[in-house]
Design goal:
This protein is an alpha/beta fold. It contains seven helices and seven strands.
Length: 255
């Protein structure tokens, strides 16, 4: 039954995505907020398909910490493809830090350019950090929330990867609070897997970290808060599904 439900979701997801990609093409000629609304609508439809076909529900916690109408940096755990789109629904006009290669995707890449996502060339070293900060400042000037995945790639639910310097660069240069975000999406939409497991994905916004901390103190606090909350959500999700922890946790995966 799980395989059948996953297959039905996958088919519906691809059809829905293709429909939305084509339907919003004329929006490229108008204000970028037309495409922002399209991204939100696509995400809303995908959440509906997950719930009705795959048996995956969404639970939100800590919404009082979610920035509304003000610039802020959000640093989120990254376990699943689910994380790459759900924040279109949870945040107002987010500027999402993404790898440059995604711009090469037909139509999708055009939409990312139109909505002014923050693109990082991971081969450019220090120049990439300077561009990240400059684009972050431009997004903050428009009072947009900036979303970054500090690990820079998806990780299995039990993996703890080093946090890359991008989040520290944004924190140090933009003088904005950072809202940590924990989740357990990898339990239900696993990376590199066709199967979607029924259950409840929890996304939890944690109390913001105020600006002004020393870099070392900031990284320690951010890492501790995200990883501790994520471990709690993963354990809670496993209790709900009766799934056991894996005997061995892969160290990392591609983005």
């Amino acid at each position: 039954m799980i395989v059948l439900r996953a297959a039905l979701f996958q088919l519906a997801f691809y059809l829905w995505t293709a429909l939305m990609l084509v339907a919003y093409l004329p929006g490229l000629a108008f204000d970028r907020l037309v495409i922002v609304r399209g991204q939100r609508q696509w995400t809303d439809g995908t959440v509906f398909l997950l719930r009705t076909l795959a048996g995956i529900r969404l639970e939100l916690r800590g919404l009082q910490h979610r920035p509304r109408g003000a610039a802020a940096i959000l640093a989120a755990k990254h376990q699943s493809a689910f994380d790459t789109f759900i924040f279109h629904l949870l945040l107002d006009d987010p500027a999402i830090v993404m790898k440059r290669e995604l711009l090469w995707l037909p139509i999708y890449g055009w939409y990312c350019r139109k909505t002014r996502m923050i693109v990082v060339d991971r081969t450019a070293g220090a120049a990439a950090l300077r561009r990240l900060v400059a684009d972050g400042k431009a997004a903050a000037a428009l009072r947009r929330p900036i979303l970054i995945f500090p690990e820079g790639t998806r990780a299995a639910p039990d993996a703890r990867l080093p946090y890359q310097p991008g989040v520290s660069a944004l924190y140090g240069q933009l003088d904005l609070p950072v809202v940590p975000v924990a989740l357990n999406s990898g339990l239900f939409w696993p990376r590199r897997r066709f199967i979607k497991r029924p259950g409840t994905i929890v996304v939890e916004f944690l109390p913001p970290i105020p600006p002004g901390l020393a870099r070392k103190d900031f990284v320690a606090r951010l890492t501790g808060e995200i990883e501790t909350a994520t471990a709690r959500l993963v354990a809670e999700g496993r209790r709900g599904t009766g799934a056991a922890a894996p005997a061995e946790t892969p160290a990392r995966s591609d983005a």
